[in-house]
Each structure stands twice: as C-alpha cells, then as structure tokens.
C-alpha cells in the first residue's frame, strides 16, 4: 500500500510539473535594439508576471498548460501580445521588440518641448506625471490638482488663504508668480485668473502633466523663471472612452466627473464635465472654515477634425463657474451672527481655443494655435468688494523642421493680457493692458550617440517694459546604458504684476497700482545639472536614481510693502533673490512592490541693500516617500509619508516641522473600480501646534499658512469604465 501511495505521489508531482511551465524572453527597444530594464511580462488573465533585469531578461514561471496570451509592456512603448501553446515544443528564449509610442506617452510629442523625441533623449529635463500615477493622485484629491503637484519633489503648493483655500505653485522655493501654468501648451492661468487656478482644475480629463524646472523661457515666454507646468488633456483614441467618477469625503464634500471620447471617421470629440461641492468644515473648532463652502460647475467640449492624415484641427471651449465662501462657520451654516467675518469669491472662467497642425512628414510640421480667455471674479469680505474682469489671448505660429540628427523649432507669438477693475471705491484702480510680441528659435542636435545639444533664443518686446533677449542651452551626455547626465541653463524675465500671492492675502485691499516709470522687469539667470542612474540590485530589485542640482538668481525682485497706514505699494529695492539646492529621487521595484523616495533641499535667500534674509514659507528640507503594492489591473495599495522641515514665517517666527501620512486603496474590475483614501490620517494641522490668526474672530489678522488646516479627511468613491 505504501508503495502504491509513493508511486501516486510521484505521479502527481510529475503531472503538476508538466502543468507548470516556464518562459524566458529578452525585451528590447525596436528602434535601437537596446534592452529595456523594468519592462513587464504578464500572462493575461492571471497573476503571473515578472520584470526585466538590466539586460532585458525576464522569466515567467508556473504557466498553466494550454493556450496562453503573454503581454509585454513598458512605459512609453506599445504593448506586444503573443499567444503560445504550453507546454512548448522548444525551450528557446524569445526576443521581444517593443515599438516606441505607448499610452504612457514617453515617445510622443512632449508639448513643453515640442519635439517628437522621447523624454529619455531630450537634453531638457522633463518630469512627466502620467498613467497610473496620475490616476492614483486623482483618487486622493478628485476635485483639484493641488495634491498632484504638492507631492512632486521640488514643488510645493503654498496655501495663501486660510479660509478660501487659495494656493499657488512654488518650484524650488521661488514664489508662485515665477511659475508658468499652461493647459495644452496655452498660457491661460496668469494675472488675476491665476488666483484660484489650482482649485478649479479637475484632473479626470488629464492625460499627463509635464514639469520643467528652471528657466524655460525659449518656447513659452519670460514668465517661466522657476519653471513651467503643462497640463495635457486627453484626446480621442482608437476606442471609445466613457468614464465616470463619484467621490465623497468625510468633510461633506462631493465630486462628480465624467469624460467621453470617441471618433466618427475623420471627426473626433471629447467632453468633460464635473460638479464639485464643498461644505463648510472646521476640524479645529475655532469658528473659521478650514474648507470653505463652494459649488463649482465645469464643462469642456472639444472637437477634432482630420482633413487628411497630415492635416488636423481641434477646437474647444472650457467654462468654469464657482461660488466659494469661507469664514465664520456659524454664519455660513445659517446662524444669526453679529458682524461675521467671511470671504466670498464668485468666479466665471471661459476659454476658447483652437489648434491647427499640418505635417509634411514625421519630422516636419507647421502649427497654428490661439486662445481667448475671459475671467470675471468678485471678492467680498464684509463691506469691502474687489471685482474686475480679465481678457487674455495667446496666438502662435510655429514650425518644426529637420530629422533625427538635427531639428529646428521656430515661431512667432502674440500675448495680450488686460484687466479692468470695477470702480467701487475712490481708491486708484489697478487696470493694465499688456502686449507681448515674441519670436523664438530652438535647435536640437544629436551630435553622437553619447552627446546631444539643445540651444535656443527668444526675443520679446513688451509694450511697457521694452525688449528682452533670452538665450538658453542644455546638453545631455550618455555615459553608459546605465548613466546619463544633463546640464543646462538660461535667462528669463517677469514683468511686474499687481496680482501676486502677497496681494491675494490682502484681497487686494488698498494695494496701489504699479508705477511703470519707477520699476523694471525682474531678470533671472539659472542652471541645472542632473545625473540619472539605473541598475538591478541583487538581480531582483530594479533601482533608478536621479539627482538634480539647481541654482536661480533673480535681480531686483518686486516686493509689496506697507508704506503707510493700511496702504500697500510695490517697490523695487536694490537686491536679488537666490535659490539653490538639490533634488534626489530614488525608485526601487521588487515584484509587485515599488518604493519611491524623494528629497528636496532648497536654500532661498533675499539680499536687500547688502543684508541677507531667509525667504519665508520655504521648507528647506522635504522628504517624499511612497510605497506601492500593485497587482496589475486588480488591486492598488499605497502608503505615503511626507516630511516638511521648519519654515521661516513673515512675522519673524519659525513654524514647526511636521509629517503627513496617507493611505490609499483601489480595487479594480473590468468595468469599474472602488477606491478609498485616508488622507493625513495622523491629523496633522497647523491649528494643533500653532495659531493661524490673531485678533478677534470678527476681524482676524491671518498668519502664514505653512501646514495643513483641514486635517484628517477620508474620501472614497467609484469609477465606471463603460
């Protein structure tokens, strides 16, 4: 009997071994035949998968008998599927060649550079948030893009209003006015319209976000001294896309968004719509809102028409309407409050944009685009009202010529920006009308396999501040398959504007118009140097690192000063601002686990008349840590931890250091997913360890906001893919 059982056990083991097969493959780039470190191979419909090592080698084990479909994929490359019958007749190693140009968009046009070269081949350092990372950030904050940007190394979204939530983007510690915010390459958010921009951009229709740090003035103008952020919208693909998201929060917030994209022969369309609701929320129980009451509606239809394979047109309109009120929470909840404090923002934003492209071949094309943006905003606090309307228009014609070795980009643009204030008081109005004429040229030269050079020159004429000549140069050195470096720098400028973070904090009350005759444009010079390295540790762990060293100097910065009792003026003392530091990003990958760690060191000082001061609201040391567990298209779990070092405050005090932790989960099925996010679950709030205002609740004098004020918030919802 024992012998029979022993033989049966041997048979079962042998049978099981026959039914558990293996497959070895080498995954390479179809263009240069180089191995793709980090490429993935998955047996479709199973949990069986593996990641390629530094030589592109990947091994799949425990593959069941029968016909199986193997999916090979890599970021920025089109996926490849093959069907094999297991057990195979031979055990040869397969060679898989992936073509550039996948959904993650690494190999398509990066609009911030206008080149068709891959991100990895560009001398300009471009950081892209796309694909699953963009989806994960959208789950955490579906109503706006603040979290998406704030959790990026080197970027801090600075809250400028304690009660409205208004925020700005700070890159490498520099004020938000030095960052240019684009949508599909159109500079729509600036001046008065930039005030609430981060709060009014919903991420569901975004395909990717491109970030360039440091002076980026050649292609997009002088405002990008600290860098630019380009938000890229989704476009119609080969298959119809219909997505919906419903999200609710423990702070009684609600987000409902929908996105539709399809093609009908030569015609394509996308439609994005969202409704976002916020309820007054006071987790500190101090009587003031940490999250204001708001209602926002957004609708963005676009039409795409393909006259031929080489000639395309797209036209769209984006409309956002919002009512936002923060302040005394009892007053907002309908109670009878004597002399309540509140800040109400009513905004209406409408943008019309169109783009035309004609290509002679894959390398040569002509682009024409224009946008018209209308923005109305009324700010009311107590009996004080500031209101006005802004019109902005951007028009550009550009051409791309050349080939793989040499590429030229040139163009002309006209930027119109005007503001007209409603006359409600006897105070001087801050009206302006700015016209900027620009011409630019850029050359991308692939000199050798190991050296590439990008050089550019922009010349602008601004109707009030005259001529500006802005050179820029970047170079990339491919030292080995594992190591590349980039070095570059350029010049920029920023014309003075009354609409800055400092004036936003005052609701523009008693802020005097800028005296053009006594001020000059701010000029800058800066440079970056970065090192990229990738390898495989212990033959099992993917490892990539990027270290960036940066420096920017801004001459004669415009400063808002209290020059008389309750009167504020923009002055230009003799001095400069310097930002210097390091960004380090590390990524580890092991099977279904990924660990991202980022560190930012930003030392930002202002020198005035020989005296040097530390710039306020700059976290000199920051840590970004994200641990992800992901089963492909089935389950995602992420744990985040962010550290902010003490910050210098405007009143001379020093803010406390703090950590923020978050936990997100998403379970995916074929047609829908359910997500749950525990944001700031340690309830880190400035009101727990510091004050946010002085004076009475009827007339609060707000201090700098350097830490979260909304605390622990749970949000969750459902996404439908129809």
TrEMBL record:
SUPFAM superfamilies: Carboxypeptidase regulatory domain-like (SSF49464), Porins (SSF56935). One of its GO terms (molecular function) is siderophore uptake transmembrane transporter activity. GO terms for cellular component: cell outer membrane. Residues 120-227 form the TonB-dependent receptor plug domain. Residues 328-680 form the TonB-dependent receptor-like beta-barrel domain. InterPro entries: Beta-barrel_TonB, Beta-barrel_TonB_sf, CarboxyPept-like_regulatory, Plug_dom, Plug_dom_sf, TonB-dep_rcpt-like. Belongs to the TonB-dependent receptor family. This is Iron complex outermembrane recepter protein. It comes from Salegentibacter agarivorans. The lineage of its organism: Bacteria, Pseudomonadati, Bacteroidota, Flavobacteriia, Flavobacteriales.
């Amino acid at each position: 009997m024992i012998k029979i059982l022993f033989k049966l056990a041997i048979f079962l083991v042998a049978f099981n071994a026959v039914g558990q097969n293996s497959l070895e493959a080498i995954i390479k780039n179809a263009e240069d035949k180089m191995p793709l470190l980090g490429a993935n191979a998955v047996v479709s419909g199973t949990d069986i998968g593996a990641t390629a090592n530094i030589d592109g080698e990947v091994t799949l084990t425990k593959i069941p008998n029968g016909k199986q479909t193997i999916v090979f994929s890599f970021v920025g490359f089109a996926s490849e599927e093959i069907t094999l019958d297991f057990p195979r007749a031979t055990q040869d190693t397969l060679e898989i060649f992936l073509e550039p140009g996948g959904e993650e968009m690494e190999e398509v046009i990066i609009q911030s550079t206008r080149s068709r070269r891959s991100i990895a081949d560009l001398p300009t350092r471009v950081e892209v948030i796309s694909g699953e990372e963009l989806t994960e950030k959208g789950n955490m904050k579906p109503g706006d893009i603040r979290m998406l940007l704030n959790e990026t190394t080197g970027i801090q979204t600075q809250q400028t209003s304690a009660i409205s939530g208004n925020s700005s983007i700070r890159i490498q510690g520099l004020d938000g006015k030095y960052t240019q915010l684009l949508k599909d390459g159109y500079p729509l958010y600036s001046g008065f319209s930039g005030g609430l921009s981060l709060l009014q951009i919903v991420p569901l229709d975004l395909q990717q976000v491109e970030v360039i740090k440091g002076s980026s003035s050649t292609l997009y103008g002088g405002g990008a001294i600290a860098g630019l952020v380009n938000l890229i919208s989704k476009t119609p693909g080969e298959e119809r896309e219909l997505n919906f998201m419903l999200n609710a929060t423990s702070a009684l917030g609600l987000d409902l968004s929908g996105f539709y994209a399809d093609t009908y022969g030569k015609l394509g369309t996308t439609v994005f719509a969202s409704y976002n609701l916020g309820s007054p929320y006071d987790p500190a129980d101090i009587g003031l809102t940490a999250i204001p009451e708001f209602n926002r509606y957004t609708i963005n239809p676009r039409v795409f028409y393909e006259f031929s394979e080489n000639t395309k047109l797209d036209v769209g309109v984006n409309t956002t309407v919002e009512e936002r009120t923060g302040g005394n929470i009892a007053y907002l909840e309908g109670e009878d409050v004597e002399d309540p404090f509140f800040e109400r923002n009513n905004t209406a934003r409408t943008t019309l944009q169109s783009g035309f492209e004609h290509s002679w071949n894959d390398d040569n094309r002509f682009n024409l685009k224009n946008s018209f943006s209308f923005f109305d905003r009324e700010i009311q606090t107590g009996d004080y009202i500031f209101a006005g309307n802004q019109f902005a228009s951007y028009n550009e014609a550009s051409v791309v010529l050349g080939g793989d070795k040499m590429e030229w980009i040139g163009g002309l643009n006209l930027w119109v920006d005007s503001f007209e204030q409603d006359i409600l008081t006897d105070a001087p109005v801050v009206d302006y009308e700015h016209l900027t004429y620009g011409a630019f040229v850029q050359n991308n030269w692939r000199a050798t396999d190991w050296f590439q050079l990008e050089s550019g020159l922009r010349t602008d004429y601004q109707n009030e501040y005259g001529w500006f000549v802005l050179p820029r140069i970047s170079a990339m050195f491919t030292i080995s398959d594992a190591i590349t470096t980039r070095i570059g720098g350029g010049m920029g400028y920023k014309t003075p504007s009354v609409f800055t973070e400092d004036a936003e904090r005052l609701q523009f009350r008693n802020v005097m118009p800028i005296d053009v005759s006594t001020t000059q444009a701010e000029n800058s010079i800066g440079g970056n140097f970065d090192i990229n390295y990738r390898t495989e540790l212990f033959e099992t762990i993917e490892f990539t690192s990027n270290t960036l060293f940066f420096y920017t100097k801004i001459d004669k910065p415009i400063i808002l000063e209290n020059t008389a009792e309750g009167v504020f003026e923009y002055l230009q003392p003799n001095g400069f601002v310097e930002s210097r530091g390091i960004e380090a990003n590390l990524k580890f990958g092991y099977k279904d686990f990924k660990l991202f760690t980022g560190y930012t060191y930003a030392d930002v000082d202002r020198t005035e008349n020989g005296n040097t001061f530390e710039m306020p609201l700059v976290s000199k040391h920051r840590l970004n840590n994200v641990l992800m567990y992901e089963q492909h298209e089935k389950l995602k779990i992420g744990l985040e931890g962010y550290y902010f070092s003490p910050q210098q405050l405007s009143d001379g005090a020093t803010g406390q250091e703090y950590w923020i932790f978050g936990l997100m989960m998403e379970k995916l099925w074929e047609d829908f997913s359910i997500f749950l996010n525990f944001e700031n679950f340690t309830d880190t709030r400035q009101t727990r360890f510091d004050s946010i205002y002085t004076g009475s609740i009827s007339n609060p004098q707000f201090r700098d906001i350097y830490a979260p004020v909304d605390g622990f918030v749970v949000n969750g919802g459902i996404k439908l893919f129809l």
